[in-house]
Amino acid sequence: MTVTLELGLIYAIMALGVYLTFRILNFPDLTVDQSFTTGAATAAILIVNYDLDPVLALGAAFLAGALAGVVTGLLHAKGGINPLLAGILTMLALYSINLRIMGNRANVPLLGNDTLYTWFSGTGITGWTLILVLAIIVLVVKLVLDWFLGTDMGLGLQATGDNEEMVRSLGVSTDTMKIVGLAVSNGLVGMAGAFIAQKQGSADISMGIGLILVGLASVILGQALFNNRFVHGFANTAVGKFFFGTRNREVLIATTAVIIGSIIYRAAVQGALAVGFNPNDMRLISAIIVVIALLIPKWRIRKRPKTTGATTADPAFKEATNVKA
Q1: Exposed/middle/buried for 71, CB within 10 Å: 0-12, 13-18, 19+?
Q2: What is residue 82's predicted lDDT score, i.e. its pLDDT?
Q3: What is the radius of gyration, based on Cα positions, of the chain?
Q4: What DSSP assignment string belongs to 78-113?
Q5: Is residue 293 classed as helix, strand or coil in its secondary structure?
Q6: pLDDT score of 304
Q7: What is the crossing angle of helices 152-162 and 174-200, to 10°?
Q8: How many Cβ atoms sit within 10 Å of the Cβ of residue 157?
Q9: Helix axes 282-302, 315-322, angle to 10 degrees
Q10: pLDDT tens for residues 10-62?
């Protein structure tokens, strides 16, 4: 139980990054598969070779991931390369760069070096106390992202994802919006990679492969479960306004849903392994979870009476039909 919550919370940081590109910018960014490893490799090598503070290593991992996002953004915005292809090109290049960062080794162990987890263990932060600390960290990351998306630049990012031509006609540089969005997204992904490397005690060249599917599963699963009238009704109550506020509420609900989705995804994976699935089937399990999450809104629509006439206007229907996974 605690392991599921722990992993769910750490990977929620990565899922928030995926949410930023996938939902806000409407950009299919495959850079994530390697920017996660870039963050892990950067943090690991700085801790091992330069005895850097583990917290500062997280910051360095964010910057390394953000740089990878900037490259993808430049390839697309300034080079005119298709978003999908730009992400793939950066991902391919990062594989070799990550090996360079790790000193041409496929694995950098952190045994014998100070990490966040050795500090947690040394100060008695374990079990449910550790879960509480991680929850606070993720909450801080979420609140910062919520604040960012509420600034002028954040609103520009949202508008760019909704209607790029309209935003450009207003004099806003959509290229800058995309580059900034990709930088922040991959920065969060890189920081999550550094967190995981410190937890498992090593950085590995293959640790990010297929991770985009995990991020998408968390985002889609969380939003599929949260995108209903009960949640939005709760948001209109006094308690709901306290949690979600009255401005930029859709984003606040969405980022909360992403975090919950990450935990649910981990719980689903752990459940599948507990009933006897082979660990080699993890990717298959992830794909099945994504498919189920995509089908949930459609099932919900089909159960409603056709006489309501609200089928095409329902947010859940839009959620299912607009997905471009």
Answers
A1: buried
A2: 93
A3: 20
A4: TT---HHHHHHHHHHHHHHHHHHHTTS-SEEE-TTS
A5: helix
A6: 58
A7: 100
A8: 25
A9: 140
A10: 999 999 999 999 889 989 899 998 999 999 999 999 999 999 999 999 999 99
Q: Taking Cα atoms as reference points, which of 319, 122, 80 lies closest to residue 221?
A: 319
* Rounded-to-integer distance, Cα 238 and Cα 175, Å: 39
Q: Show the DSSP H helices in 22-82 as ranges.
A: 32-50, 54-77
Number of continuous H segments (helices) and E segments (strands) in the chain: 15, 2
Q: Which residues, given as ranges, of the chain have pLDDT below 50?
A: 308-317, 319-325
Among all chains, which residue has been given the structure tokens 């990450």?
Answer: 262
Which tokens in the block code for residue 300? 């919900």
If you search the block for the tokens 């930023």, which residue do you land on?
Answer: 20
The model carries a pTM of 0.87
- Amino acid identity at 202: S
pLDDT digits (tens, 9 = 90+) for 180-212: 999 999 999 999 999 999 999 999 998 888 888
Cα distances from 70 to residues 53, 175, 196, 203, 309, in angstroms, run 26, 11, 23, 23, 45
Q: Which residue has the tokens 């752990």?
A: 270
